[in-house]
Design a protein that fits this description.
This protein is mostly beta strands. The chain has one domain (54-187): Trefoil (Acidic Fibroblast Growth Factor, subunit A) (Trefoil). The chain is built from 2 helices and 14 strands; from the N terminus they run βαβαββββββββββββ. The protein is globular and about 35 Å long. Residues 1-49 have low confidence and may be disordered.
Length: 188
């Protein structure tokens, strides 16, 4: 089952706010990849139903965490519905509009070592709360259709793919908003 977030949707109240979408319409639309064969629900599908994928404009690949465990790097990978690729909003940092991004494995997206530097690696880690502002993100608009930037609270830098790579497994890092770099644009 492929889960897609509808354009004017909200996901579980807080998630709708995090994703920057209106709260009046349904959050998800089910789009079966094979309508003739109904597959039984799996643990992976159940995890995917709790969130949505975040897809890179440049590569068409999904944001995920290698291994799905603490201290594992974020990468782009072919979208496969795995729990490490399904994301939902977690807690908000005060009343700032910045939220934790939590994947289906329960890992928060954060910047390695809380770095504020360009090129710092982005990792999956246990959600640690407000004492770790590097684990809070917000969406910022772009001029490219529904694609937006994910901005980190701690650094003010945006999520992108290292070296503008389109390769599967390419590392995800934070960098200054370049305005023209497609590797920094994402859609959920």
């Amino acid at each position: 089952m492929k889960i897609r977030l509808t354009l004017a949707a909200a996901a579980l109240g807080v998630a709708g706010t995090m994703l920057g979408l209106a709260a009046a319409t349904p959050a998800f639309a089910d789009t079966p990849t094979n309508a003739t064969t109904a597959a039984p629900a799996t643990q992976q599908q159940a995890a995917a139903a709790a969130g949505t994928t975040i897809v890179n404009f440049n590569s068409g690949d999904c944001l995920g965490i290698t291994g799905g465990t603490d201290d594992a790097p974020a990468v782009q990978w072919t979208c496969n519905g795995a729990p490490d690729q399904t994301w939902k909003a977690g807690d908000e940092y005060g009343d700032t509009g910045y939220f934790q991004l939590v994947n289906g494995d329960g890992q928060c997206l954060g910047v390695l070592g809380g770095s504020t530097g360009e090129g710092a690696s982005v990792y999956g880690w246990t959600c640690l709360g407000p004492s770790h502002p590097d684990q809070y993100w917000t969406w910022a608009t772009s001029s490219v259709n529904d694609y937006r930037y994910l901005v980190n609270l701690n650094s003010g830098l945006v999520l992108g793919v290292l070296g503008n790579s389109t390769a599967q497994g390419a590392p995800v890092v934070q960098w200054a908003n370049q305005g023209t770099e497609n590797n920094q644009l994402w859609v959920s």
